[in-house]
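Data availability (excerpt). The following record was deposited with the supplementary files.
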Amino acid sequence: MGKRLTQIATRTGDDGTTGLGDNTRVSKDHLRVHAMGDVDELNSHIGVLLCEEMADDVRELLVEIQHQLFNLGGELSIPGFELLKPEAVLALDEALARYNAQLPKLQEFILPAGSRAAAQAHVCRTVARRAERAVVALGAVETLREVPRQYLNRLSDLMFVLARVLNRMNGGDDVYWKSERLARNGDG
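Predicted structure:
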């Protein structure tokens, strides 16, 4: 692969605009830029999660997700372009089924806590939801394929499941919400 980035500080954004992949310039608060930024932030949080101890299969899955998120960011940066394939959504569906099958059924709500890796997976989940909202907002004003939205929706679900998997890695468990209402009713 040839060199793609030759200069990082171009100063072209000093006027409050940024360049898209098709060489058009838009305001830095454009919905497309918000979506691109949220996807980039999600990818960065997954990078932080990858600093934690985890099973090799989970690590490999997260690295593949990072590549797919880079594809998604590239697709968002070029209006009308397609990089993220429907097969990427299917891969998340398969991972969801595989990892969810290993877990006990949820009986209560859980808190975004536990091990550091699990807590970071929950951060990834919430950022994925924000990125999904940004893509939905962009799709309300511009034509977008459904694959990016579907991918982010599945990914947030997968990050929830992986948080539960990571909490159990060394014999731990989910951190359950202690509902005052359920406790008063004798249910919690």
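Summary of structural features: The beta strands are 17-19, 25-27.
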